[in-house]
Structure prediction request, 211 residues.
Amino acid sequence: MDKKQQVSVILERLKKAYAGTPSTALRFTSPFELLVATILSAQTTDVLVNKVTEKLFEKYRTIQDYAATTPEKLAIDVGSVNFYKTKAKNIHTSAKMIIEKFHSAVPKTMAELTSLPGVARKTANIVLSSAFDINDGIAVDTHVKRLSNLLGLTKQGDPVKIEQDLMPVTPRTEWGNISHLLIVHGRKVCPARKPKHDACVLFDICPSRNI
Ligand code: SF4
Prediction:
């Protein structure tokens, strides 16, 4: 089985196993809210981010609200997440840039999104895929990195190189899905500490099943 065929089987089985699972565990009602939640989620669990954004999104309703406050005040509102001061500053500056450079609308291209502070390819891919249904790349987080190595789809450790290995063997229409499904599978069945090989729907096609 070549890598394209392997990815096709992985997608088919994980889609079946996780049918109905939302494309992201982060809660949002607009592209900007997803951008905010994704910036906050670096090195932080989605559960904590959702707790923080529940109140944050009540307080700040529009992009203009985020731009009108100060990074210091915003930092207090997101104080329970890691690196909250930097994240607050990035959210504040992003809001101002989106108003000034992008007519108050979250941009829909990789180049424009990654021009915002605190937004690298992973964040941009999540926003493009989950907010706009645009497949411009594959979001590689810690689960995608681990699973794609375990499954033998890459030997790389750098997320950008992993993304480059995954894109040619994955149909473009599935770029958002593969990231989302590997994340769910990593959380539920194949966590770093104790992979549940026996319960895994990918057991027979996984070169790491005996690790
Ligand atoms: S067989 Fe084991 S190592 Fe491979 S994906 Fe499944 S749980 Fe992870």
Remarks:
- The pocket of iron/sulfur cluster is lined by residues 150-151, 189-190, 195-197, 200, 202-203, 206, 208-209 (CB under 6 Å).
- Residues 31-132 form a domain with the Endonuclease III; domain 1 fold (CATH 1.10.340.30).
- The CA atoms of residues 181 and 208 lie 18 Å apart.
